Task: structure prediction
Amino acid sequence: MKIRSLIIPLIVLTLLFGSSCETTKEDVQKYLNQGDYEQVYSFLEKSISDRRASINDLDVTDKTAFETGFFGLLPSNSAYASKAADLVSNNHQRIENSQNLEPLLWSYLSEHKTAPKGVYTYLYDTYDFRNPDAQTLSWFQTDSVFLGLLKADLSQTIHENIFATNDLRMWAKAGGFDEILEILDEISRLLREKNAAQGSIHRIDTEQDEAIQFAGSRLSSMSGDRRSLERRIDFLEEQINPGLDESFIFRGYMIALIDRFTITGHPREVYEVRDYYGNIRLLITTETSFQSKGTFSMRVQEFLEIPMQLKQEYGGFNRNIKSYVEVGSSNWSDYLADKAELEDLKTQLSRLNNQIQRQRTSSSNANASLAQTSASLKEELNEEIRVLENQIRSKRRELVDWANTNTSK
Result:
């Protein structure tokens, strides 16, 4: 009887403990009804941390516990409403079916007309401004929070890359900033006029070149130098590995050595690694030999997708695994040196071409009348270009002035 009297309480305690291990939707709703918003927020935070947060499909009317807690906190007018919005905005990639958040949040905003700033930030950051729709743009152009975000991005683009006309137009259209669009239209018009004037100068030079005869040893020497430069440029362009343009710094975790082999006397090692997102990848090293597991970073080129069978701990499935090849330090140094030399040679070639052009003009005694007329016309066009450039700079200063008054989100 004594043993039985001990067992029964233990069973009751076990049942009570087991039933309290997982917070249910009903528990969350009870916390909300009691105004225990701290408990609800703690549940949301732990769900995300444990990767147990989820949103039901849009065609499912029943909400998950996480969904109940999140959307129950938003209208609470408590500090935890803002904290929950920021939590979800910053960690939405850790939420199952997070793609359903966007339509649900738009629906929430449409119903409540306001929300914590984290909701606005999430909707703004996930919106594709390159494919806008009228209904969403209406929100952006009439809501003060969205307008603040748009002004900040437009101002930042103006400050960082005022020549990115397409991006400037995108933000200006999204925010309905007609004054910016008018300035951009005016700049485009002035640039067209400038290009037309430059085209006229180019045509004058071309016509003049056709009437000028090559003369003098200096011109022959310069032409020979140009051919030498062009041959060297052609050689470098063929020698430079274009694949290195796409190389990048790979950061991951070293798991294990898989294989060793030799290519034309050069040893190679193949490693199993994990990338930043936890994906299994293969790494072929050309210089580096790892001695232990751990994090690492290395410049690599993308190689092939190699069919492999995953370990049993990863499911044992057959899968194509991306592989990368180490870019050796000597190869990278040679590549940078060749690129630098190529750019320098192209600059020399451009300068030499200009010198040859001037030499042709000064060496030619023929068609003096055409040369004089051409010079006069070019001066007029250059003056027109200078005026246009001043007008363009003035318009761009207007953009900067606008940005300076609209820099805070």
Observations:
- The two ends are 72 Å apart (CA to CA).
- Confidence is low (pLDDT under 50) at residues 1-20.
